[in-house]
Amino acid sequence: MSIVYTQTGAEKSAVDVHWLSTKARILVGNVMRHMQMDTAERSLFREDMMQEALSWLYRHFYVDGHDEAYAYVAARTNLIGYVFVNIRGGGNGHQWELSKQYHIDDNLTEPEYIDEDSRGERVVRLPAALYKRRPVEEAVAAKEDQPSEAERWMQFEREIGRILAVMRGQQWHPNSLRRAALALCESAKGTSNYNIACKLDLEWHAATAIILHYRPYLEAYLAMSPLLQGLVRAEGVLRLRWWEEVTNAALNSGQKFIVILPFGAFTVGYYHSASKGKQLGRIQMGRRIDGKVCNRSVQLGEVGRITKERLWDGAQQLQAKLAILETTATVTA
Question: Which of 213, 241, 269 delimits the end of a domain?
């Protein structure tokens, strides 16, 4: 039994704190050796593991009513899983989903405010600067902040697209760039040319030709100095934008760029209307019909008043125009 000191005096507690603390220290040492944790890890995570061991021992022995041997073995299993998932960042599926149940309150950035304690009394919370995250909280936050593998490959594909948009000079072929970026990204993953062709809905030899044609542009980029590579990437951000990256400032800048929407890639260009005396924006796209390239465009309005909504509506109108053009060509043929 342990003695607990309250506002009214000393009282006996049903929880043997000394036994609990001793078992927790033994348990933590055992798990550290089992997981082959080095000196740095032991120093950094010992306090967190002690708290975890205490909570599991208390639950199995006092709450669930198991005997001492069972409580120790069960708590050891729980602590090994805790180290594996939340410190080492391992696991997937069910175990990794369990780790995502952790919610971290960022007290480092929250302002001072009034809160209610467990008894419903209003109290002033301490200044946020006094709080510091535990090491395991930092580890979980870092793991959760990392993009998924699919997200990383998507970013890689976009980076290839931006590089190609610059390295190809003044050859603005939006859908060709989009298709080439996807093909080169899949090739980097190790996907066969046959499967790449299936993804692009092309013949095998056509997909292979795309990879062979565009790969030298990437090789030329990689041969550049870091400074020139940085300039190419910076210009690529201006030349090629995805829908979520488009801003009203970019639309009204008067600088030509390629925009990739969920249903196609388009060129946003600008021209001066002599009759109206204004600079106007337009969205353009071309299709090869009967061996000839046919370009169509839709006006977006005066520069300074173009919005993302107009861009979206204009792209859909342009798609409808091209669909009518293809239908007419098919009927004529």
Answer: 241
Q: For residues 50 and 34, what is the distance between their CA atoms, to the nearest angstrom?
A: 16
Letter for the amino acid at 53?
A: A
Q: By the 8 A CB rule, do 216 and 167 touch?
A: no
Q: State CA 260 to chain mean position distance.
A: 19
Are 260 and 203 part of one and the same domain? no
Specify whether 16 is located in the same domain as 91: yes
- 0.85 exceeded by the pTM? no
How much of the chain exceeds pLDDT 70, in percent?
A: 75
What is the number of other CB atoms lying within 10 angstroms of the CB of residue 141? 13
Q: What is the separation of C-alpha 143 from the centre of its chain, rounded to a whole number of angstroms?
A: 11
- Quickly list H helices, 126-283: 135-145, 149-167, 174-189, 193-200, 204-222, 226-239, 248-251
Among candidate residues 216, 157, 162, 217, the one with its CA nearest the CA of residue 189: 157
* Beta bridge pairs of residue 295: 286
Q: Is the dihedral of CA 262, 266, 268, 274 positive or negative?
A: negative
Tell me if 156 is assigned to some domain: yes
d(C-alpha 218, C-alpha 164), whole Å: 7
**Which residue in the block uniquely carries the two structure tokens 């939340």?**
86
Instruction: Give the bridge partners for 302, in sequence order.
Output: 280
Question: Does residue 114 belong to any structural domain of this protein?
Answer: no
SS3 state at 51: helix
The domain in which residue 51 lies consists of 2-99
Q: Are strands 122-124 and 114-116 parallel, antiparallel or unpaired?
A: antiparallel
Residue type at 68 in one-letter notation: E
Is the same domain home to 216 and 273? no
Q: Which helix or strand (DSSP H or E) is residue 4 part of?
A: strand 2-5
- The pair of structure tokens assigned to 157 is 């594909």
Q: Residue 25 burial by CB count (10 A; 0-12/13-18/19+): exposed, middle or buried?
A: middle
Give the highest mean pLDDT range of 53-57, 167-171, 175-179, 261-265: 53-57
Give strand pairing partners of 11. 4
Query: For 67-77, how does the pLDDT look when each residue is reduced to its tens digit (9 = 90+)?
Result: 999 999 999 99
